[in-house]
Every structure is written in C-alpha cells, then in structure tokens.
Amino acid sequence: MASDVARYDWGMRYFTSDTHFGHPLVSVLRGYLNNGRLRAEYAQIRAEQGDEKAHEWIKSYVKENQTSFKAISDVEAHENAAIEGINATVGRDDELWLLGDISFRCTVAHTLDCLRRINCRHLHMIIGNHDRNFRLRFNDALYEDVFETIDDYREIGMELPVLGDADGSAAVQNTVQNTVQNVGLSHFPRLAAMIDGHGVWPDDLAKFADDAPTTESWLIYGHTHQPTPDGTDSLCVNIGMDAWDMKPVSETQIVEWLTAANRKAAQTN
C-alpha cells in the first residue's frame, strides 16, 4: 500500500475519473455524436426518459443500421469537453487525481497530448482497467513528466467527519468534527460491494476481484459511469465524470458529500 504524498498548501485537491480519451462508445453514450439530428434525438430521449433508456436506444440504432459507435461518435468533441471541464475547475497550482480509465486503446502520443492540455502542474494517477499503457510498470517512464505519482491504489490524508462509534459503523455526530483520516483512492469500488453485487457492473467480480480495494473505510472511486455520486455505502463516493457534470470534484465537495451521506445513514438506522 502506498503511503501519503506531499500536500500542496497553495492549492485545492481535485478528483475525477473515466475521461476515456479516444473512446467512441463512451463519447456516444455521453451524447457526443457527429450527426446533428441523431445527437438531438439522443439528447431528447436522455432528458425525457433517462440515461438507461437513451443508452438502449442508441445501441439499438447502431445494430439496426449496421453501423458502429466509431462511425457515429465525435471523439474529439468529447475529449475537448472533458479537458475544458477540468481546466474550468482546476487551477494550475492545484492538485488533480485522475482515478483511472484515462484513455481507451490510444497511442501513448495521443494520451500524452490530451494530458498536456490539462492546465495543472500536479497530476496524480490511479490505474484503471482500460489504462493498458500503465499495466506494465516500466511504462511509467513514458509519463514521468506528466504524473507525479502512478499507483494501482493509494491512501491519502483528508479531513473527514468523526463518526459516532470508534469502529466507524455509526453516522456523523450531531456536532460535526473533522479530523485527518486516511481515504483510499481506487478506480474500482470496494471488493465487498463487488461480492454483494451492489452498485457495480454485473461482471465486475469475475473480472476485477483482484484489483478491487479490500478497505472497509473511506473510499473515493470511479469506474461505474453512474449518473449520481452515491457510493456503494456511506463511507465512499463516486467521483466519475458522469456523476459530476463532466467536471472534477474538490476535496471540499467530497467532505460535504460524505458528511451528508453519513447524516442520512444515521437517520435511517
């Protein structure tokens, strides 16, 4: 397990995941299509019926018209939106953690080009399942001038709410007190959630059981492409781009979210 890294006192920490540079399928599912009529129809279905119905519709369209996601996607527009969302939120002297699935079947050159367009000097990476270039750790050298750290999993210190019970099972006390505690950073939800099949993809346990974090404490993760930040339990939060309007999440937002989630858990217990 990696230890904490230096904290930059002059900036805020931000977190995001699943930028999926170069990925036609994700570009389409997020609404970046190269045909205006198709894009408008897809957007209308999303607005009126939700993401799931829109995803079903566009997948049926691809099959019925014997086309491909690559043929109908606007990958460049999707990449631009992801990078613009980051740059509009994160300052140059801030710290940005990218929690995996940065690109999909891209060359190193293209991935680096996208990353260098991010206007932040302190980038850290957690490896996701689509990050093929990072599976062999000697490839880290290819990105050493972009990322300050590259890990499968890491824990960092964050001022998080003190829970009512020493074992961390109870919710936030009425008078909220924060203290520095370790929070896990992972691309994947916790292993216990995969085993329970809660808040994960159906085949996650078979594919990623060895990669999922075993921690039962605080956790920040992505991977699921869900439309809301809800974690698999009150001690975790999903910071994927799909859950936060294609923008990174600040440490302050994360603390506020986890505090509210544990207050809600207290009311239902």
What proportion of the residues form beta strands (DSSP E)?
Answer: 15-25%
Compressed to H and E, one letter per element, the order equals: EHHHHHEHEEEEHHEEEH
CATH class term of the largest domain: Alpha Beta
Distance between the termini: 33 Å
Count of extended strands: 9
| Spatial shape | globular
Structural class: alpha/beta
Biggest β-sheet description: 5 strands, mixed
Radius of gyration: 19 Å
Q: Kindly report the oligomeric state of this protein.
A: single chain
Order of strands in the sheet with the most strands?
Answer: 4-3-2-1-9
Overall helicity: 25-40%
CATH topology of the largest domain: Purple Acid Phosphatase, chain A, domain 2
**What is the domain total for the residues?**
2
Compute the average pLDDT.
90
Parts with pLDDT < 50 across at least 5 consecutive residues? 166-170
Descriptive notes:
- The radius of gyration is 19 Å and the shape is globular.
- The chain is an alpha/beta fold and 269 residues long.
- It folds into two domains: 13-21 and 93-268, 4-Layer Sandwich (Purple Acid Phosphatase, chain A, domain 2); 33-72.
- The protein is built from nine helices and nine strands.
- Helices cover 33% and strands 16% of the residues.
Features:
about 270 residues; alpha/beta; Purple Acid Phosphatase, chain A, domain 2; 2 domains; five-stranded mixed beta sheet; four-stranded mixed beta sheet; 9 helices; globular
Concise structural overview:
The protein is 33% helix and 16% strand.
Write the layout of secondary structure elements.
Elements: E1 13-16, H1 24-29, H2 36-49, H3 51-64, H4 69-72, H5 75-87, E2 95-98, H6 108-116, E3 122-126, E4 147-151, E5 153-161, E6 178-186, H7 191-196, H8 204-208, E7 219-221, E8 236-238, E9 249-250, H9 251-268
Domain Calcineurin-like phosphoesterase: 72-240
Organism: Bifidobacterium merycicum
Family: Belongs to the metallophosphoesterase superfamily. YfcE family.
